[in-house]
């Protein structure tokens, strides 16, 4: 059996490894060009002005047009030392080359007021998006900032997602920073073979719906070496996702790394084969989380959360099959089936009432749950960490603090 000290030593080592990887990613410059003989299309050559106040949207569109029609592994280049103002920017393929690089070393900002945004067909649901671009690499050291604080108090369900890649294969996103965006910061949708690494996301704890990285209907996705602080899920994984590997993440503030929500309004949602490892949660409202609505259908299965350190998180381990967000919910017999879930080598402290909460449906109970080597104590000096389980079935192995029965 793994001892507590061995677990703490292991988690401390991995925490340091995460921090070292993160800071190295910030300090080391990324290469400008993938190949010396590849054509480079600089946005300044197409009329962009990097003064932070001149609209450069048309210039970026013209640069993309030249880049996407080149057949020789082109690079669209956004140079450092500049700040570019962009309205809604939708860049689409397919492109002539099987590989396309976007190098963003300058900063990008949105209009400062929601009323100033210019969007296609008056739909401001996305800010910067790429669609049908296979072999896309987006990298650099730039900051993408959306003046989200002006949006967060606006009662508008069409708040824009800051950065989206959809309907694409063999894609990579690395090195960039995202700050204070109106809604979701990074969205990966309906894509395959995607890699997200060494990015930083920063938004206040009270900024609504500002998920860090949101993944939907995508397969074979890896997310690693990222520092994420938001007002919603650091990483959210929803319907249609399979074969995801998430590792070396620092999350906080935020709502944790979440599977779901799934099954809203009776939908049939499915997520499977997810591995989340080597994560530090710092004062997050949740840690390792699965959330489903009553009345839904489908499954969340074959999911592993392991080698995790919680620092004063409120719900370090949670399965909630009664999730209900800003709606009046009623009881249902149907539910998304949650099965074959592993929580392994999870240690640290909890500020919430329950360090472990597995609240499952009586009609569709959680099955195949494994709790292995869990040691979470209360942040309060006199309080003992507690666990709560309902309709959760499985096994407990090794360290078991707080005491959890399955």
According to DSSP, the number of beta strands is 30
Cα(first) to Cα(last) distance is 19 Å
Strand content: over 45%
Radius of gyration: 22 Å
Q: What do the pLDDT scores average to?
A: 91
- Catalogue the unreliable spans: 22-34
Tally the helices. Answer: 2
Instruction: Bin the helical content.
Output: under 10%
- Please summarize the sheet with the most strands: 19 strands, parallel
User: Would you tell me the structural class of the helices and strands?
Assistant: mainly beta
Q: Per the principal axes of the C-alpha atoms, what is the gross shape?
A: elongated
Brief description of this entry?
The chain contains 2 helices and 30 strands. The protein is mainly beta and 406 residues long.
Question: What is the secondary structure topology, with strand pairs?
Answer:
Layout: H1 4-27, E1 40-42, E2 51-55, H2 57-69, E3 75-78, E4 83-85, E5 89-92, E6 100-104, E7 107-109, E8 126-131, E9 136-139, E10 143-145, E11 161-166, E12 169-174, E13 177-179, E14 186-189, E15 192-197, E16 200-202, E17 213-216, E18 219-229, E19 235-237, E20 241-251, E21 257-262, E22 268-282, E23 288-292, E24 297-313, E25 317-320, E26 337-350, E27 356-359, E28 366-378, E29 387-390, E30 392-401
Parallel strand pairs: 1-3, 2-4, 3-6, 4-7, 5-8, 6-9, 7-10, 8-11, 9-12, 10-13, 11-14, 12-15, 13-16, 14-17, 15-18, 16-18, 17-19, 18-20, 19-21, 20-22, 21-23, 22-24, 23-25, 24-26, 25-27, 26-28, 27-29, 28-30
